[in-house]
Amino acid sequence: MVDVRVLDNQCQLQLGNFPLSVLIKCRKLSLFEPVQLNQQTEVKFFSLTEEELAMMHLMTNTQIMSSKFFQHILNTICEQIVAQHAGTEDEPKVEFTAQQAINQIWDPVKQQLLQIVTQINDGTIPLAELDAIMVVLLPDYSREGFEKFKQEIEALFKFHNIDAGVSGTQTATNLKQRIPQIRNYLTLKQNRRNAVILNDIKIKLNLDGRFNELNIALKTLGDNAQSVLNSINERVTKITSSIQNIHPEMLLILEKFLKWDQLIDWLREHMKNLGEVKVMSDLAMISAGETPIEVDRVSCFLSAVIGFSPLLFDLPQQAGLRELLAACEMVWNNVERDEGLLKKWEETAKHLEWLKTVKDFHGSVEKSSLTRAQQINERGLYRIGGETQQIPSLDNCLELVIPKHRKDEKEIDEIRMSLSELRDLQSRLMLIAGEAEKGKQDVSMFVDILSNVENLAKAYIQLKTSGCLLFSKWKANVRCFGGRENHAVSIEVFFDETSPAISSSEDVMLGTTSLTKVLHEAHNTWTTYLSEQRSEHYQLNYFNIHQLTYLCKELANSADINDFPDQVYALLTSVKKETHFDELIDLLDDATRVENEDHEMSIVEDNVNVTKAQKKKKLVRRLVDMEITQNIAKAAVQSVRNLDVDECYLWALENEFEDDSVLDLARQFDEEVGKMKLFIYIHCACAACF
User: Fold this and answer.
1) Which of 223, 333, 446, 472 is deepest in the core (most CB within 10 A)?
2) Is pTM beyond 0.70 here?
3) What is the C-alpha separation between 631 and 636, in angstroms, rounded?
4) d(CA 675, CA 686)
5) Beta bridge partners of 480
6) Mean pLDDT in runs of 10 for the chain (690 residues)?
């Protein structure tokens, strides 16, 4: 308590009863000197000292008394003084004279305020002290709260500068520069949790990429007793902007993700990529059988791991902060699509021991077999046919190639598998899938495609062994690209090395079955034609099919040679003895001239069919442009035989909801149009073999 009784008594007096010379220090005026109206008047009545006057000047001109921080320091100093007198006779009531109050209260408070302003102005204030100031002046981190904090700092700077004007010390002029730094430090503090969680993920995933910015942020926040305000530079500001946009709910998800660190460690140790996770889920589904609880566990496991796969498997060890933030964004997108993702992750972690048991139960052979089936379904290339000197068989006319590719930053070499190896893989897969009804999509697709490709290869071998020369260099590529969700393949057919490919992309059953059917029809056409020729020209019966094939090949090369091999003349002796080269050339010219006349008529008929196929395809495209779906457009064209666009459009509108009939008609369209050009080509070539 300050003793101000003398001042109180003086304030009670009627000042009008005193002469002016007693109240203030009077000045003499001169007629020859101008009056200085702005000169401060000195009060004598209260007998105040220079220190007391300076203190009152600061109080009245800076409004420092209303400052929360001034009041905080004042209370702190007073509490210290009271604590010093604890246990003494003066404890109940500590009294000071005005001069004692100035010396023991005002001066310490003033010095602390001036020192803080000086440190803020110079940027040398420790961040720990700035934190203490924020505790007092910034109870919340809202925009309104910061504006009030800014006003407090401005009041302190004004207090400092007015005192500097009185005492002659240097003023503080860097407030505009320091306010943005304080704001950036505040933002950094707000995102401390973000930085800590990102750093924890970096450590858990063993990432050693570029994390300099994150390390600087953590050092600034963790060592704020040594760091000063000037350390909040432009680099730290950029760091703050890079990590502050993480959604609060995303932080919670990342925390929950890290909570189950044993699951993270187990997955990263035993699963190299998402493909192995899918294999694991298929094997787990097999173990689950028809038990609903275990089936749900497997589904939960697969969904959870896929949701967090950007963090678990997609980040290389060299990933830095930018890549980590991108992975977090992908996880957040997965969470938005599946609101129960976090719950699934927690449930999966709780059943980790069950997953370990499932993994131990299924050996590496089962996993490698299922993985190989998935690779084949995703990018396998079946090759059928090609020119060979061997007797055609499934073993030398069918092979599988998995092309060279990159996966998980690694180069995977090309893989080749023979039919026997494919059948061995099929046997192992059937043992796996035979244990349960669940988890067989990959196995089913592999078996379906292999079966259809085998049928196609058998049809090709049948044609080639029957002597159809068109297929001497014929080959087909069946490329898989659909994965487990879509049994799609791309089929390419080549009749020789120079001819363009005939290709299509469609369902495996429809594509390979249609082509197999075409080859069977070509075989029937060829054998019928061959029988007719043998009946019409009995001399052909002197030769078996292999001899006829040999003669056709050699005689077809007559334009490029000067004589035929001795084997040709030896075979022809059964028809005509002593045949000469020139005589054979003349006979071939006569036969070719007659055949060309018949062939031209056949081409005219075939072109009509090709033109019709082109019209049907063009009409489908027009209907699709009119916002009719492709299947309905195909069904409409197949149903309306006169190919009128208006009638097709009306048919499509009337039948757009009849799914079964539409799909059946669309399938008929694909079969007819898809095989027409190929079949015509085969038919013409077969007729030209002799």
Assistant:
1) 446
2) no
3) 9
4) 16
5) 489
6) 58 66 68 67 61 65 76 84 67 63 79 88 88 82 82 85 72 85 84 87 90 80 73 73 77 90 89 81 67 82 92 89 90 90 91 81 67 85 80 87 73 84 82 53 84 91 84 86 64 80 67 85 88 82 82 73 78 76 74 52 47 77 83 86 82 79 81 53 44
